[in-house]
Fold each of these.
Amino acid sequence: MVFLFLVYVMLMLNAAAAATPKYVFAHYITGNAAHITQDQLESDMKIAKHAFIDGFALNIAQQDQNTDFVLQKAYAAAEKVGDFSLFLSFDYLSGGPWPVDRVVDTINRYKPHPAQFYYNKKPLVSTFEGVGNTNDWTEIRNKTDCFAMPDWTSLGPESFTNVRDKVDGFFSWDAWPFGTENKSTEGDEAWANATGGKPYMMPVSPWFYTNLPQWNKNWLWKGAHLWTQRWEDIYYFQPDLVQIISWNDYGESHYIGPVHEDGIPQGASRYVQDNPHDAWRALLPYFIASYKTANRSRIRVVRDTLVFWYRPNPNDSGSDGGTTGNSPQHGQPAMDPRLLAEDKIYIAVLVKEPSFILAQIGDGPIVSLEAQHSGINSFEVPFDGQLGNTTFAIVRDDKEVAYATGPPITKECVDGTINWNAVVGSS
Ligand SMILES: *[C@@H]1O[C@H](CO)[C@@H](O)[C@H](O)[C@H]1NC(C)=O
Ligand SMILES: *[C@@H]1O[C@H](CO)[C@@H](O)[C@H](O)[C@H]1NC(C)=O
Ligand SMILES: *[C@@H]1O[C@H](CO)[C@@H](O)[C@H](O)[C@H]1NC(C)=O
Ligand SMILES: *[C@@H]1O[C@H](CO)[C@@H](O)[C@H](O)[C@H]1NC(C)=O
Ligand SMILES: *[C@@H]1O[C@H](CO)[C@@H](O)[C@H](O)[C@H]1NC(C)=O
Ligand SMILES: *[C@@H]1O[C@H](CO)[C@@H](O)[C@H](O)[C@H]1NC(C)=O
């Protein structure tokens, strides 16, 4: 394990510890990259690597004419960047199931590439769903010798046990909470149990809001605590691999990569364009180093960092756009989205020592919070009807050690519709 980019955290590596390597990938929608250049791909990959991400899981849909074009550029870019790996994730819902021969051809075409990710000496391959095609994998594995870790989440853990001998591991897509609940690791435990000792890839996602009428999608799930809480869970749960959902799925608002405007799906610009999420990556070196060392005492925080996120529009500032809390399409009861996406600022700080955290909305009163221990501390500050730009500081020994400002909380909604996506910023 070589961590060259010790900007935010420093690892004190113990030479004696040589456990099974763990990996963190980010889900990359090639369908949103039809116009991307190899330079842009290299830039995105360097940024991901800088955040300690090991590579991308490349989501590919069988009807997408651009797939090979994007894959060729991606594999070439990853090779050039170096020490950054890729694997294929066959999407069985977008455009329908993949025919077996095309899956076999695509795996075999890319597996000799230097940037292909190998796990247990085999090229790792994953999916998005595909529960009607579980029988295909006997032939696919025979003809490619791949390491198959499908996401067949809609099967449920119990039914998965009936087909697990057809694959080599499992990836769960169950990354968001139901209703007002906080996400627990119960689902991860059930899936990890159901693999019968085969590797488990655990999902982590910072948010979920989609409003794409052309695909009949318009719902949100509670996301407020996910980014800090799920990484905490990952630290204790210690899955074999982790996949971040996502790098560039703009339409579902869970991207942590840079926004490339020509990759935004039709209709999503309204809620994506002014909503950068880059700052969510600022905490990743710490989160990933925590997961990989399984021992935070070995990590030294070398820079105080503050990250904040919030929705830009209060809940009474416009139409809710018909967005439901929960997904009725998936059989969940519809709820008022305001109950799941609350009018609050969420703050996570990574501090070297106990510190005070200051937060202010517009010209309102300054709220003082206490980060009681070194490492990660999380806070919530209700809007309380205040509007305006936001400012934040970390203060220690009467000195300001970090400072950040955020875009305004405003009742002026784009198109009169509340933006349920987050804006994210950092010091
Ligand atoms: C594929 O099946 C054939 C016939 O059973 C067998 O000889 C071969 O070893 C298998 N290949 C792999 C990679 O499993
Ligand atoms: C969810 O987690 C947050 C942060 O840990 C906590 O403040 C809140 O009370 C929890 N909510 C529920 C319903 O357990
Ligand atoms: C997973 O298996 C362990 C050990 O058998 C058991 O204690 C636990 O209840 C299981 N968890 C779930 C969610 O099935
Ligand atoms: C964690 O790391 C610290 C510092 O290197 C070490 O003293 C401690 O024994 C480690 N704890 C475990 C459980 O390995
Ligand atoms: C909308 O926000 C206000 C102010 O924060 C809050 O009092 C109210 O409960 C919220 N509405 C819902 C439905 O949660
Ligand atoms: C909010 O910040 C923007 C950008 O820095 C600035 O142009 C604007 O004047 C600020 N608004 C207020 C009310 O301070």
Note: Residues 6-300 form a domain with the TIM Barrel fold (CATH 3.20.20.80).
Amino acid sequence: MSSTSTSTSTGSLARSRPIADRHLFGPGPCNPYPEATVALAEPLLGHLDPDFLEVMDEACDLLRLMWGTANPRTLPISGTGSAGMETAFVNTVAPGDVVVVAVNGLFGERMCDVAARHGAQVVRVDHEWGQPVDVERVVAAHPSPKIIAAVHAETSTGARSDIAALGAAKGDSLLLVDAVTSIGGIELRADDWGIDIGYAGTQKCLGVAPGLAPFTINDRAWERRVERPTSWYLDLGLLGGYVGEAEGSGQRTYHHTAPTAMVASLHAGLRRIEAEGLEQVWERHAEAGRLLQTGIEEMGLELFAAEGFRLPELTSVKVPEGVDSAAVRGYLLDRHNLEIGAGVGQYAASVWRIGLMGHNARPDRVALILAALKDALAHA
Ligand SMILES: *Cc1c(COP(=O)(O)O)cnc(C)c1O
């Protein structure tokens, strides 16, 4: 292609612009841990290469640490967090099964949609957005659901729910939990809390690019799974021949080509978290969130999520009266190279969402955000 070409192909666009190095302080993706980025540039391995299988096995071990589980069936699903959600429901819901879903934000809503598409009889328990899940109301919604589903960290509102309490109250039901924004950021103990099925994502507090969905399922849920799910790609029975059950057995069978570069990157990010210490990483998120939320209130702004249930990794802020929410976000991006998120649904224009996830959960990032936001509001 000549240098004077006016082609708008991405190649030509990429060459005509400098690489933007954004501060990713929205609801995900965040700026990855440097180790995770470096791993993406390493020479590629095949998905059945013994060296790669070692990386995969180690990544699964590290995921067990992140989940707080001993489940052998713990693996990264190929796809983003939503693929994890789909995997959870398609493998456990048969037509007519009752699924109680706690809805306190967008991702609870999405669970209802996904469960219904797989034939579930969905019983939804609605909450005001910004509030945590009300465990008593959720368990009272139906006498014997097959599954009770809830979101641990509602990224759409910034509220944290008490999954341990839900696990203690679940009775004979299976507890299915969305841990996309909690894993690697706040305390998560799948086995102690009674989580039977869990899915997560890589681009939030694990500090890796989007593309994989860390997944775990225990024996109790495995015994009650759907034997022949309507999805072939996300069939855990077939995937088990490649990871999990096949681990160390030398009996790997090809199912689909694992995204080896992404798994290597996840592995590197998880190693970084392990080296720092998982509990120290939770504490780092807690500290960064406290600093940001205190700073926001000192600026005279109001927080959206209910006090006492605020996530450190996702701070939701009420847009002040008379301020154009989108204009402020545009200014932050243009002038400060800094991305924050809009609100969701009816709160699209009235709430901002600021993420401090993974590598970004640091005091110097907080200072940057507060200074940029002050500047943006002075210009609004
Ligand atoms: C981001 C997110 C998802 C969806 O994950 P994708 O990676 O966007 O597919 C699901 N649940 C929660 C709580 C999330 O924050």
Note: The chain has two domains: 19-31+278-378, 34-275.
